[in-house]
Amino acid sequence: MLTNPQSVPQSDPLPGRRAASAPRRSGPVWPRPPACLRACDLGLPPEGARVAVAGLVILRQRPGTAKGVIFVTLEDETGVVNVIVWRKIYERFRRAVIAGRMLRVTGRMQRAHSVTHVIAEEIEDISALLDLLVRPEGPAGFAPEGEMR
């Protein structure tokens, strides 16, 4: 069982690493939002760990046989993340699930038959961050290569 989120320090997505100033506490040290786990690191957290992932929405599926479950696939720079959205969560975060081009999902890790899923608990539409990529000054306010501001 996981501990209270207040008792778990903010951590680096790499296991076993802590900030020098972080107090020593028991419990998992997996990332807490706003930090997100990369797709290539999904094998690191234990089953049931609470994680946050983010990426571009490349697929939404709502099969008629799935009894209201929606399957979302996110892609980040390292791979893809499978997300399961149960009906109650979908109703709560409907706008983000339907219209979001880029999402941050917080949920629990689940592994079954060599497939890893994140069972969504919270979904945030972070599509506005995509606009930062097309600004003339580029991401983080830097001028494009070869230009001075």
Automatic annotation (TrEMBL):
Gene Ontology terms, MF aspect: 3'-5' exonuclease activity; nucleic acid binding
Ranges annotated as biased composition (Polar residues): 1-10
Ranges where the OB domain occurs: 51-126
CDD domains: DnaE_OBF (cd04485)
Biased composition (Low complexity): 16-28
InterPro entries, sorted: DnaE2/DnaE/PolC, NA-bd_OB-fold, NA-bd_OB_tRNA
Pfam families referenced in this protein's UniProt entry, alphabetically: tRNA_anti-codon
UniProt-listed Gene3D superfamilies: Nucleic acid-binding proteins
GO biological process: one example: DNA replication
Spans annotated as Disordered: 1-29
Domain of life: Bacteria
Annotated family: Belongs to the DNA polymerase type-C family. DnaE2 subfamily.
Cited PANTHER family: DNA POLYMERASE III SUBUNIT ALPHA, ERROR-PRONE DNA POLYMERASE
Protein name stated in the entry: Error-prone DNA polymerase
Organism: Ruegeria sp. PrR005
Lineage of the organism: Bacteria, Pseudomonadati, Pseudomonadota, Alphaproteobacteria, Rhodobacterales
